[in-house]
Amino acid sequence: MQTEIFKNFTCQKFILGLLETNSYLLYSEDTGEALLIDPAAPSKELAALIKEKSIQPDIYLTHAHADHIAGLEFFCNLLPDSTVYIAKADEQMLGDPILNLSSFIFDKPLTFIPKNLQTIKEGDKLTIFNECPYFTLLPGHTQGGSALVFEEAVFIGDSLFAGSIGRTDHPGGNLNMLLNSLKERILVLDNRKVFSGHGPSTSIKKERENNPFFF
Fold first, then answer.
1. CATH no. for residue 73?
2. What is the 3-state secondary structure (H, E, C) of the chain?
């Protein structure tokens, strides 16, 4: 577990599942609000922290590949009143083990669709942690890939990594679309820390200046 402290919230990273996916729990001691991003696997440690903090996070899925949703059913059962946010274009992947790749990654296919599912579109905002982060759509890794943009941080899933970008050879992937999405909606932002779905964090400034995919 790794911890980052921002002005309005604390971020704790858990590396979960077969593909070592980054799952993030954001919470505020002041407001009692919380958000769980990409529950990659059932986790007793993460569940214990949620209980310890007495928080009831909503859930945000940056996209619907199996290694990012394998813990979704577990946490929806733990948090039955939580809203699950995902872009409309990836909604069908939740119940399709071929599209979400679970048929290829896991022994058991994933077909769980949350009851409290809310689809997001470009520019939709949350009111949380005394700020208004917004969702931005980043099609290319999947058709419904997205990021959540805070004042100090961006949670971007597998669209962008430190020194690289997400794969585009899976169903729904498109390299040109992903590059255009990132250039038009992420690289133009003021510098923020970037939290990816795998590997270390980076920053918009670092990727704008050093990522070979943007030259």
1. 3.60.15.10
2. CEEEECCCCEEEEEEECCCCEEEEEEECCCCCCEEEECCCCCCHHHHHHHHHHCCCCEEECCCCCHHHHCCHHHHHHHCCCCCEEEEHHHHHHHHCCCCCCHHHHCCCCCCCCCCCEEEECCCCECCECCECCEEEECCCCCCCCEEEECCCEEEEECCEECCEECCCCCCCCCHHHHHHHHHHHCCCCCCCEEEECCCCCEEHHHHHHHCHHHC
